[in-house]
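ok so for the tutorial part 2 we go from a plain amino acid sequence to predicted structure tokens. step 1 is just haveing the sequence, like this:
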Amino acid sequence: MSDALIHDPEGGLPRLREIMRRLRDPETGCPWDIEQDFASIAPYTIEEAYEVADAIEREAWGELKGELGDLLFQSVYHAQMAEEAGHFSFDDVANAISDKMVARHPHVFGDESNDKSAEQQVRDWEAVKAAERAAKAETRVLDGVAVGLPALTRAVKLQNRAARVGFDWPSTDEVIDKIVEEAGELRAATDPAHRAEEFGDLLFVIANLARHLEIDPEEALRAANAKFIRRFSAVEDALAERGKRPADSDLAEMDALWDAAKRAERA
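step 2 — the prediction. this is what the tokens look like for a chain of 267 residues:
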């Protein structure tokens, strides 16, 4: 029966779960998959989530199906390992998120009025999450902000939590002043450990500026990365037309070509 399911192109989620079970079978499974644990798989889970985000950002809808499948496989992988260890099953995972969504949307699944703005829904959502944290004995303001988030994203979430209890600068002017202050402290730092600390402080305040400007710092940095790749590729192409590679050039020449690439983009 399992072989028939594994080779059924319409097998859907039961097929994927059976494939995962077989991969982890201690007698007949894949040696690599058998050796993995939660910690070794977690980096792949994060990577797959980023690849989903990348496909969406590029509007690569043909790729998105595959990337979502890769991410789903990560959930199935973790659930299989959890079931083997006696922690929980995949159905427990699905039921837990279903229960959470129903509880957090009483205006859709309960008797609460649906006549509210998106902003009010965000406030209600935060109130429900605060109650959930209290039920888990997460009593401090910053409790429950996931450690495994990208650092810039986590910084914004921590700052949002603090801001909800009034710990926040009133405007962007104070944040920018703080950036100047932190940059000065970084410039004055002399030893590597101190420089690393001051650099972290500077990044943290820049994340706060992004929050005040309602900019997603991860998204902004991804866009800056893409722009850098695009413009440096233009520099490489221009050098190739001259029969050269970047290693054969110098900073002055490449900087001039970089400026030309910027002008071409803005034309």
